User: What shape does this take?
Amino acid sequence: MSETAQRRGRGRRPAGEVREGVLRAAADLLLSEGIKAVTFDRVASAAGSSKMTLYKWWPSAGALAAEAYFAHSEHQLEFPDTGDIRADLTAQLRSFVRLLTHEGERTREGTGSVLAGLIGVAQTDPELSAAFSEHYSAPRRALAVAAFEKARDRGQLRAGIDLGILVDQLWGACYNRLLIPDAPLTEDYAVALVNNALDGAAAR
Amino acid sequence: MSETAQRRGRGRRPAGEVREGVLRAAADLLLSEGIKAVTFDRVASAAGSSKMTLYKWWPSAGALAAEAYFAHSEHQLEFPDTGDIRADLTAQLRSFVRLLTHEGERTREGTGSVLAGLIGVAQTDPELSAAFSEHYSAPRRALAVAAFEKARDRGQLRAGIDLGILVDQLWGACYNRLLIPDAPLTEDYAVALVNNALDGAAAR
DNA sequence: TCACTATGTGTACTGGCTGTCCATTTGAAG
DNA sequence: CTTCAAATGGACAGCCAGTACACATAGTGA
Assistant: This one.
């Protein structure tokens, strides 16, 4: 990579070209050195652009990092719909945990650390927080709730249940182990999570 | 407060006195301006101490913030033990949510934002992460697991269940709404959470 | 009581990042 | 071709991390 800042001298350059270069440079920094490395200074010099340009287009370095992450990594994770909510959930949550923990193309220890960094910075960067919610967490929550609604209509879930809570008890539990790592995050954990959420913990 | 840096001139000062002043200044900054305000520079000048001293005693500003937080806020939250796990859990989780969302003595919007800030910075500060786990999250997890074990021995929980998972599905779900606020964190939510975790979501 | 030493303090650096200027240069629209 | 919009290099003050050195003094043993 090393993204040699191909300096073209001064003057205006095509906007799309500049944005593309900046986002790629930001994604490179984010995936290789973590969120702390994504500063306006470093991204600008890596992309061969001026800091002024970045300040014009992105409200904070965190927001830039978030956009770079979502643009350069396809996290579709289609929701399977076989008609069996337990099987679908298990498959979905397992692949989610695998994505977080196992290595991908460009990260050693999985996307988990990058995602954790973004969520971490989001706690003190409102712009990043908004971007994260809009482009990542809210759509995913909606997708899960939609799947739950279909399952409830099929009679697989209790009628009176709050589906948003179910989302928190599955994905939120995973994020908990990602962000507050006092217990391991494994695929077996994901499987047990689904069963626990569906069957409950109380003795029959 | 305003903690006028009572300068005593140069020279050595009683260690305990210095530590006390530094921790109080750090807690003041943390509670009034948030985690971003807790820098070695600002804490040192607010406490009337030298930066050198802080560097000698704390590995990072985040670690200092964590110690200040845990030292100057009593978060006992004793686990009630009435023999009814559902009632105990509900009470416990409700007061937890209340602590996070309702205002306390010194914070406007509850301890939640401070805690979120600490967890956020912990994602990129290993020293803070370790301190947080040691002094906060791990002990609390252990306390909850112990309560679950007693309930299981009383026959209120299924025998084969993983108690760690139950912790994530209750407190982890709350942390999820605290850190990724796409859905509200309320006391009613806490109550529903307990029922959902105990009874399960699957149709009977 | 007194001298010694460990320890905190003031001061001053270097270097990185933020956020904001300016003057200059050039792509793109008319 | 002319004009305007936009990106560039460069510089700047301010804050912060992290380190260094000389000096003053609290706590300690003699």
